[in-house]
Design goal:
The protein has 371 residues and is an all-beta fold. The protein contains one helix and 28 strands. The protein has four domains: 64 residues, Putative peptidoglycan bound protein (lpxtg motif) (Ubiquitin-like (UB roll)); 63 residues, Roll (Ubiquitin-like (UB roll)); 68 residues, SH3 type barrels; 87 residues, Roll (SH3 type barrels), CATH 2.30.30. It is elongated, with a radius of gyration of 49 Å. Pfam families: MucBP.
Length: 371
Amino acid sequence: MNFLKRLKAFFNPQQQVATVQLPLGENYQPIARRRPILLPSPTRRAYLPALQGSNQLNTQVQPDSFVIVFYFTETGDRLAKPQIVSGVRGQAFNFTVHQFEHYYVSRIENYHGYFAYPRAIIQLIYAQQPAAPVIVFHFDEQHHLLAQPEYLVGQLGQRYETHFLESRQYQVQHVTTNQIGHFSQQTQIVTYDYRLRQIRWANRYLTGFVRLTTDVTSYRAPDAEPLAQQLPINTVWRVYQKVQTTQRQTWYDLGGQWIPTENTERVVDYYQQPQPKALAAPLFQQAAVIPGSRRAVVDFIPQHSLRTWTQPYGNAANYLQHGQIVNIIHGVILSNNSVWYELEDHTWLEEHYVRLLSAGHDFTSPIKRLH
């Protein structure tokens, strides 16, 4: 070491580097003659150290695509937790289409059957199944409709609520228990029964009879419009209820038609009424008998029976139930313009108490006068 190097080493002792002469082995080669290191390349095989514990390469492919499946209603409510499906792009996949009560799949948004994107969303939209309708009827005491039937529609399980009519003339007397409920697969019928607000009191479900002491005008309801024909004198009628109006006038319900209690007398033991006075010759609506070709339904009061007669304004005969189907074989128009139908058991019923059904044959024969 020359003088300058010694002087530099004296003033900078930390930069001194110790050099050690290592012994050379038998396989020592100079740097210039060492074998070059070969790097791996596509054309040259690379020799890698073997893994400990396994001599095979890991061939499992990691997923690189995820699909999230949502289940919503049409209103945006979530029906179930989202389903996450993972896989490799280009691979087909399946997901679960859940079934929910009262719902069905109405549409699928952004559907694709392969993993195409790193992240994707599929939405299944469910709609509620339609339910059977709820029909609301509003009847008066004579079972006449006060308004057109209401048809309520909704989804299965959805709540419904019905309401009574706002009327100054009528007030609710009875309503069925299903006025509030839920839509179902079965058609439901709600019935509101009304009575006139002018009624002070009423005795219902009477079983007595009255005889008319003169020709009496009948009405659709107390203080309502009169019917076209009068009821003949000395005829006997069954009374179904007795009411009094706010004007303190008393009325009898004869089953679909009303009369004031004046000009009537009670029949205590009614078995056979006196023969009615002779009527004018009737006008027959048809001359030919059409057995079983014209059908009708008894239109009276629900849960009540109606009496038939041996002849128009004749003696009492049988009973018919409201809603019962009957066959009409004959019809007559009397001189007071009342219309009566003869049934297949040869009893008679006035037109107010039957509702004709459609059939293959109508009363097409001309009206013939009897002299």
